[in-house]
């Protein structure tokens, strides 16, 4: 039948998006239709709703060239889902769609086909209750249903679902465009990653802000001061989530001693580098909340400690980067 005014037909984006068409495909379709002077495939319309369900590209061409011959087929769909399933089932085997696109379309109808299969199972008589019970005990394999609808293997559907659910958007887009196979995307998603060997942790002297002052300090002036073992501080600085470039001060108020620990991470070598400097100090002034100290490097107070330690290196590097 012909519709009196095609401009009265309504277009729903949710239906139009189900069957996308490239610019090249649209140009080719337009060229053939104009050459024939007729649109051979009917434009499908939801009866009573005036909504175009299928044939959006053909409708666009018709509006630009109203003298073309055309037909409209009106179908009384039950609801939106019924119309959506109609579109999917009529386009799911189109070779112009990639396998990924066809599976995406089929996935929209998975629950519908599952419910339909369950309804078929529930159809029975009291004479075959035993066989009906046997069927009910078997779960419905929707992967198999989708595979039959699309025309691919059940394994492909299973792989597609995992990639569709878990893969990053760029990967899914490459599959959608046909640049990457579903199997390749699945393999990249599920391949076992070889655990990385934890790198060596080395504590040793590195350049820091105190180096210049140390060059001008006497190393013998306070050599009698008992310097505490810095091991407990360096171990804590390594294992806790201490960022790259951190500076710690350990102050002994009784002894008048300051130990300075600076941390740097060399990610290329896989090393944590900690410089330790020990200073004696005296208070110059303490006024208006500002304390001024005079510090002098202690002989032997700068230590180079080198050892291996794998504790939490990965997490420290990650925190620092």
Describe the structure.
With 321 residues, the protein is α/β, with parallel strands linked by helices. It folds into 2 domains: 6-190, no CATH class; 211-320. Helix content is 41%, strand content 17%. It has helices at 13-16, 23-36, 56-64, 80-91, 99-108, 110-122, 129-137, 142-150, 154-166, 169-177, 182-190, 211-215, 231-239, 313-320; strands at residues 10-11, 43-46, 51-54, 72-75, 247-252, 257-266, 271-287, 290-297. Strands 1-3-2-4 form a 4-stranded mixed β-sheet. Strands 5-6-7-8 form a 4-stranded antiparallel β-sheet. β5 and β6 (257-266) form a beta hairpin. α5 (99-108) crosses α8 (142-150).
């Amino acid at each position: 039948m012909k519709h009196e005014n095609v401009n009265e037909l309504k277009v729903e984006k949710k239906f139009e998006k189900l069957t996308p068409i490239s610019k090249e495909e649209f140009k080719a379709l337009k060229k053939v239709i104009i050459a024939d002077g007729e649109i051979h495939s009917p434009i499908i319309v939801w009866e009573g709703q005036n909504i175009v369900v299928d044939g959006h590209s053909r409708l666009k061409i018709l509006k630009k060239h109203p003298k073309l011959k055309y037909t409209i087929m009106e179908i009384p769909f039950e609801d939106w889902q019924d119309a959506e399933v109609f579109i999917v089932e009529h386009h799911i085997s189109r070779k112009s769609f990639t396998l990924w696109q066809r599976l995406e379309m089929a996935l929209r109808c998975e629950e519908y086909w599952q419910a339909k299969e369950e309804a078929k199972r529930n159809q029975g008589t009291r004479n075959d209750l035993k066989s009906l019970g046997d069927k009910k005990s078997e779960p419905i394999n929707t992967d198999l249903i989708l595979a039959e609808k699309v025309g691919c293997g059940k394994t492909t559907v299973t792989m597609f679902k995992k990639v569709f659910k878990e893969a990053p958007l760029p990967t899914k887009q490459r599959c959608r465009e046909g640049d990457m196979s579903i199997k390749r995307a699945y393999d990249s998603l599920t391949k076992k990653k070889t655990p990385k060997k934890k790198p060596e942790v080395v504590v040793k002297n590195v350049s820091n802000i105190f180096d210049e002052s140390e060059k001008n300090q006497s190393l013998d002036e306070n050599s009698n001061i008992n310097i505490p073992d810095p091991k407990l501080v360096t171990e804590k600085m390594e294992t806790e989530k201490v960022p790259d470039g951190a500076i710690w001060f350990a102050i002994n108020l009784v002894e008048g001693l300051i130990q300075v620990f600076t941390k740097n991470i060399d990610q290329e070598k896989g090393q944590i580098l900690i410089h330790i400097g020990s200073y004696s100090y005296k208070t110059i002034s303490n006024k208006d909340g500002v304390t001024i100290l005079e510090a002098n490097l202690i002989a032997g107070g700068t230590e180079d400690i080198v050892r291996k330690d794998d504790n939490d290196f990965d997490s420290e590097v990650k925190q620092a980067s």
